[in-house]
């Protein structure tokens, strides 16, 4: 399946679009011939969406205006995937991808696939030459993750395996890794065997106690250097004709991100 994120200038039946009214009303809608889309703003005929095309306005039965947009990856992360686990927030994922240097052609290990939220982001950046190798120790999550990846056409860039990375992984010479599990210090030997020398790894850690324990384990291991940890906070700026000001709400603590890079141990 071709990625739905490879946007052209046309839209067609069977695809999805973003119907955008405002920042609070944005809907992922599948284009099915003869069907209607309803919201508190009124009804839109799907056939009218097809006729007008992407980037155009469409008017509802209540005379409200909406815009027809191609969905971005963020739209699927926020509204389009089934979630059965806690996920790493976009504010953290963007920072992680940059710090790990992930791009097309990279081979990346992920531990703790869950719903496939992080997997989707990794696959988007490694395609078309790269690949994500995910490990998940709960079988019921694997099918959900595969379904979410297939929805956006990124499944061919991902292999998800049932297993616990603490017991080892099949892959070697990997370019990067991201670890989201309760006891990541137990996976250091697996990571040391799987990563290329100099390759970075990111650990997503919910609590300060876990962060301290991970740091102590990494420091003792001696196979990882360039260690650092961050917390990412995000505040939106409210934009209107009346006032432009910081929002009274913000996405605060979601977790700590611990980075390290593999080095060759001294003999």
UniProtKB/TrEMBL annotation:
<dbReference type="GO" id="GO:0030488">
    <property type="term" value="P:tRNA methylation"/>
</dbReference>
<keyword id="KW-0808">Transferase</keyword>
<dbReference type="GO" id="GO:0160107">
    <property type="term" value="F:tRNA (adenine(58)-N1)-methyltransferase activity"/>
</dbReference>
<dbReference type="Pfam" id="PF08704">
    <property type="entry name" value="GCD14"/>
</dbReference>
<dbReference type="GO" id="GO:0031515">
    <property type="term" value="C:tRNA (m1A) methyltransferase complex"/>
</dbReference>
<feature type="binding site">
    <location>
        <position position="164"/>
    </location>
    <ligand>
        <name>S-adenosyl-L-methionine</name>
    </ligand>
</feature>
<keyword id="KW-0489">Methyltransferase</keyword>
<dbReference type="InterPro" id="IPR049470">
    <property type="entry name" value="TRM61_C"/>
</dbReference>
<protein>
    <submittedName>
        <fullName>tRNA (Adenine-N1)-methyltransferase</fullName>
    </submittedName>
</protein>
<dbReference type="InterPro" id="IPR014816">
    <property type="entry name" value="tRNA_MeTrfase_Gcd14"/>
</dbReference>
<dbReference type="InterPro" id="IPR029063">
    <property type="entry name" value="SAM-dependent_MTases_sf"/>
</dbReference>
<keyword id="KW-0819">tRNA processing</keyword>
<feature type="binding site">
    <location>
        <position position="136"/>
    </location>
    <ligand>
        <name>S-adenosyl-L-methionine</name>
    </ligand>
</feature>
<keyword id="KW-0949">S-adenosyl-L-methionine</keyword>
<feature type="domain" description="tRNA (adenine(58)-N(1))-methyltransferase catalytic subunit TRM61 C-terminal">
    <location>
        <begin position="84"/>
        <end position="242"/>
    </location>
</feature>
<feature type="binding site">
    <location>
        <position position="180"/>
    </location>
    <ligand>
        <name>S-adenosyl-L-methionine</name>
    </ligand>
</feature>
């Amino acid at each position: 399946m071709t990625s739905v994120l490879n946007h052209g200038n046309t839209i067609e039946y069977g695809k999805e679009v973003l119907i955008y009214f405002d920042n609070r009303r944005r809907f992922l809608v599948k284009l099915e011939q003869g069907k209607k889309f309803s919201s508190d703003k009124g009804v839109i005929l799907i056939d009218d969406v097809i006729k007008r095309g992407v980037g155009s306005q469409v008017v509802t039965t209540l005379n409200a205006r909406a815009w027809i947009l191609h969905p971005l990856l963020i739209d699927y992360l926020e509204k389009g995937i089934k979630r059965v686990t806690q996920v790493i927030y976009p504010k953290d994922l963007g920072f992680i991808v940059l710090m790990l240097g992930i791009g097309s052609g990279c081979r990346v290990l992920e531990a703790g696939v869950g719903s496939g939220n992080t997997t989707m982001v990794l696959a988007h950046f490694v395609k078309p030459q790269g690949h994500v190798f995910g490990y998940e120790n709960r079988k019921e999550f694997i099918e959900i993750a595969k379904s979410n990846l297939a929805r956006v056409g990124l499944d061919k860039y991902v292999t998800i395996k049932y297993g616990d990375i603490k017991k080892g992984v099949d892959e070697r010479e990997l370019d990067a890794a991201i670890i989201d599990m309760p006891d990541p210090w137990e996976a250091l030997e697996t990571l040391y065997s799987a990563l290329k020398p100099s390759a970075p790894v990111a650990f997503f850690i919910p609590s300060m106690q876990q962060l301290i324990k991970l740091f102590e384990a990494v420091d003792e291991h001696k196979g990882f250097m360039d260690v650092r940890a961050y917390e990412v906070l995000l505040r939106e700026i409210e934009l209107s004709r009346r006032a432009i000001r910081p929002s009274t709400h913000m996405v605060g603590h979601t977790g700590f991100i611990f980075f390290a890079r593999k080095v060759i141990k001294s003999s």
